[in-house]
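TASK: fixed-backbone design
INPUT:
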């Protein structure tokens, strides 16, 4: 599909298909955001934390910093609450909470230094970029879009917003629709070799982290502070999804027809739970008809 996009993506038929599919993709992301938000935002405090994350995202704060800073805020809130109840949270927990955003910043700066080549997207920078993204994506696959946009579009300028949403749109017709976007982007940047290293880079951390953390998660959840930290991370992830949806919508919703298509798709997904694959197909048909008439 990436090869077809590179070869024929500028043809009127391909432009028409993507024209109709992009608004549907925005609706799919919104539906995921709605579903996750209903379960993740459990208290007013978490709702406020999510709003803070959204504001920080609009201010241009790095997604990695947003995630770990908000996790620390919710963890700190739980630590203070335990203090008021005269429970005995450890001082080590407080130190870890305060140090986590700083650690995230150091990791981000180290990663940026490793792959920051302004005019080059060689195999090694591509691999390191997707390795980093695969290591920190948390909460939903759609958080990947926030990292992709922040790194590839805003920081490195390897792709445009339009190309990124094209990648997401094409990924929606494949199994594992969000993470296969990495394969597609790798191909756009460096052909088949780029597709391979991007795929390997983004999936390696999942195997390693699941193996390491699987036995630890139940024990971590037994800690009220660690549980609060994870709640904050999840809400921060939702804020990042909301922000990147807004940014991509500015590219996808270009006229009245696309706005109507996005609203109708959102309604069908959220209210009637229509299979998203049918909506993607319908969007493609609408786009073809729009450009044919």
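OUTPUT:
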């Amino acid at each position: 599909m990436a090869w077809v996009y590179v070869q024929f993506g500028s043809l009127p038929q391909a432009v028409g298909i993507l024209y109709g599919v992009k608004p549907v993709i925005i609706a799919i992301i919104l539906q995921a955001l709605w579903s996750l938000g209903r379960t993740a935002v459990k208290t007013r405090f978490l709702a406020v934390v999510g709003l803070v994350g959204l504001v920080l995202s609009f201010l241009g704060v790095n997604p990695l910093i947003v995630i770990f800073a908000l996790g620390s805020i919710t963890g700190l809130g739980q630590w203070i609450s335990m203090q008021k109840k005269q429970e005995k949270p450890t001082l080590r927990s407080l130190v870890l909470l305060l140090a986590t955003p700083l650690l995230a910043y150091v990791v981000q700066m180290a990663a940026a230094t490793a792959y920051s080549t302004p005019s080059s997207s060689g195999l090694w920078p591509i691999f390191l970029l997707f390795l980093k993204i695969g290591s920190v994506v948390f909460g939903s696959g759609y958080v990947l879009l926030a990292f992709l946009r922040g790194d590839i579009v805003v920081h490195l300028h390897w792709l445009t917003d339009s190309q990124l949403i094209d990648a997401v749109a094409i990924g929606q017709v494949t199994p594992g629709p969000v993470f296969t976007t990495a394969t597609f982007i790798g191909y756009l940047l460096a052909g088949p070799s780029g597709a391979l290293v991007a795929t390997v880079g983004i999936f390696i951390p999942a195997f390693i982290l699941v193996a390491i953390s699987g036995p630890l998660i139940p024990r971590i959840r037994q800690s009220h502070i660690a549980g609060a930290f994870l709640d904050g991370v999840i809400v921060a992830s939702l804020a990042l999804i909301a922000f990147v949806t807004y940014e991509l919508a500015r590219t996808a919703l270009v006229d009245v027809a696309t706005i109507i298509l996005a609203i109708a798709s959102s309604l069908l997904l959220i209210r009637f739970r229509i299979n998203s694959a049918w909506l993607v197909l319908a969007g493609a048909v609408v786009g073809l008809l729009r450009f044919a008439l």
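COMMENT: The chain has one domain: 2-292.
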